[in-house]
Amino acid sequence: MTATGTIDVADVRARHRIEDVVAASGVELRPTGKSLLGCCPLHEDHTASLSVGGIPDRFHCFGCGASGDVIEYVARLRNLTFRDAVAYLENDHDLGMSSARRAPASPLPQPPTIDVVPERAWEINELAWQRWTRPVNHEFALSWLRNHRGLDVAPVEAALESHVVGHTGAEWATTTRHLSRAGVSDDELLALDLSQRTRRDTLIDTLRGRLVVPVRDSEGHLTGFIGRQTLETSRGPRYRNPTRTAVFDKSTMLFTLVSHPSPPAHAVVVEGPLDVLAVAAAGVSTSLPVVAVSTGGTSVSRDQARQVSALSSQRAYLALDGDAAGRDGATRWVDLLYRQLHHPIAVADLPAGRDPADWIAEHGPSALRSLLTQARHPAYELAQLAPRGPAAAPATAFTPHL
């Protein structure tokens, strides 16, 4: 503020780094190249569309198009005029920023370069999972699924004789401290994406306030976790996968609760981990021979398609979300699983805007059987693939029964 009592706008800009203000507003920022990326809080964003600092002191969202300096960011976030946004920053109102945070800060520390051998990585992940499935955490996860998604996975856990969900708790560094006391080094925590380093050179938990599901390889080794946001006030992405680690690679990851179904079951390909849980619960409830699988979205690699084909020789069902992304994802699955690997499949059509978990919660477990028995031949998807050239079709005739 100047001697006359007016606010010096240039001084406000200089004292409030855009990176600090965005982080203080609840956005989880991660370094990539010369900028930081995070999910934009100005619209419904699950793809980390917000770029911060790529152009010095500016932000830009590739999703909604918003861009500007630190004042414009606060004005848009809080629905303020330019003048009010300047005053808001001047007073540090509700930003949770101390004078220490306003001081010039060094760039975010880079991830460690140490190599963690797979056996050690599996061991550390198991320690984290044991923490997140303590009775208090586990019961909270079960309760949240029942109350917020209409999903009861207790029968699934009883059938598998193991926990399939846990919860991290909402504290900033509980898991980090627990694992450190268990002998896990800071570099190991960072390398496995279980912790993140702050600008103050302290470690905090990567997954906070999230329901977690374990991702295991075909041998049962725990390679990583998918976290689903449960805090109403959090501005982070709804789902969070690990970054690439010594034992986790999203391009090869396949989330399923059963790696070796016996007797052989029909694979049901869905998008999200809660869809996997919902299909598994419906299968247990109705005795349907199904095993749900997910790649954590609509993307699919040839390796992931091979894994699905290897699960069972039975017909696989595509049950992706009822939206444009789901339809595009189904086409990619048809190309890899049906057209290239010659695995028999059928496509289940969900209503617009619905996913399998929603559908089953609304209509009950029997809705899964109806959804799959009404699945169709992938003729539409094959038509989309026609320009790519002919491919031999599977020899088996299409019979969409279970």
From TrEMBL:
Limits of the Toprim domain: 265-342
**Any idea what this protein is called?**
Zinc finger CHC2-type domain-containing protein
Q: Which InterPro entries match?
A: DNA_primase_core_N_sf, DNA_primase_Znf_CHC2, DNAG_N, DnaG_primase, TOPRIM_DnaG_bac, TOPRIM_dom, Znf_CHC2
GO biological process terms held by the UniProt record: DNA replication, synthesis of primer
Q: Which residues form a coiled coil?
A: none
Provide this UniProt record's keywords sorted from A to Z: DNA replication, DNA-directed RNA polymerase, Metal-binding, Nucleotidyltransferase, Primosome, Transcription, Transferase, Zinc, Zinc-finger
UniProt KW Nucleus keyword: no
Which ranges carry the Zinc finger CHC2-type domain?
Answer: 36-90
Query: Which domain of life, per UniProt?
Result: Bacteria
Molecular function GO terms recorded: DNA binding; DNA-directed RNA polymerase activity; zinc ion binding
Q: Which SMART domains match?
A: TOPRIM, ZnF_CHCC
Organism from which the protein derives: Knoellia aerolata DSM 18566
Which Pfam families does UniProt cross-reference here?
DNAG_N, Toprim_2, Zn_ribbon_DnaG
Can the keyword Zinc be found in this entry's annotation? yes
Cellular compartments per GO CC: cytoplasm; DNA-directed RNA polymerase complex; primosome complex
